[in-house]
């Protein structure tokens, strides 16, 4: 089983890397990009029978800083 965790900064948290990307896109001639939020994707290969709640616990304890980040879990 594979789980994909997407971690993003929460709305209202400054994203200097996203702003640098937005600026670089403009410098490369890509107009019309008004904002960029960057995040990370973590793919986990899980043993059969691993409860989905375990992935949520992994996110809360290690994979995401829940003070400033939100996360989404997709299990395939």
TrEMBL record:
Entry's Gene Ontology cellular component terms: cytoplasm
A Pfam family it matches: PurS
GO biological process, one term: 'de novo' IMP biosynthetic process
InterPro entries, A to Z: PurS, PurS-like_sf
Gene Ontology terms, MF aspect: ATP binding; phosphoribosylformylglycinamidine synthase activity
Location of the protein in the cell: Cytoplasm
The enzyme's E.C. designation: 6.3.5.3
Biological or metabolic pathway of the protein: Purine metabolism; IMP biosynthesis via de novo pathway; 5-amino-1-(5-phospho-D-ribosyl)imidazole from N(2)-formyl-N(1)-(5-phospho-D-ribosyl)glycinamide: step 1/2
Domain of life: Bacteria
Classification via Gene3D superfamilies: Phosphoribosylformylglycinamidine synthase subunit PurS
Keyword terms of this UniProt record: ATP-binding, Cytoplasm, Ligase, Nucleotide-binding, Purine biosynthesis
EC class (word): ligase
Known catalytic reactions: N(2)-formyl-N(1)-(5-phospho-beta-D-ribosyl)glycinamide + L-glutamine + ATP + H2O = 2-formamido-N(1)-(5-O-phospho-beta-D-ribosyl)acetamidine + L-glutamate + ADP + phosphate + H(+)
Subunit and interaction comment: Part of the FGAM synthase complex composed of 1 PurL, 1 PurQ and 2 PurS subunits.
Function noted in UniProt: Part of the phosphoribosylformylglycinamidine synthase complex involved in the purines biosynthetic pathway. Catalyzes the ATP-dependent conversion of formylglycinamide ribonucleotide (FGAR) and glutamine to yield formylglycinamidine ribonucleotide (FGAM) and glutamate. The FGAM synthase complex is composed of three subunits. PurQ produces an ammonia molecule by converting glutamine to glutamate. PurL transfers the ammonia molecule to FGAR to form FGAM in an ATP-dependent manner.
UniProt family annotation: Belongs to the PurS family.
Protein name: Phosphoribosylformylglycinamidine synthase subunit PurS
Organism: Hasllibacter halocynthiae
Source species taxonomy: Bacteria, Pseudomonadati, Pseudomonadota, Alphaproteobacteria, Rhodobacterales
């Amino acid at each position: 089983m594979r789980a994909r965790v997407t971690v993003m900064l929460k709305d209202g948290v400054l994203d200097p890397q996203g702003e640098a990307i937005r600026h670089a896109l403009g410098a490369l001639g890509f107009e019309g990009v008004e904002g960029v939020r960057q995040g990370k994707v973590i793919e986990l290969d899980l043993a059969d029978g691993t409860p989905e709640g375990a992935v949520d616990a992994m996110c809360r304890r290690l994979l995401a800083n829940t003070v400033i980040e939100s996360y989404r879990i997709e299990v395939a």
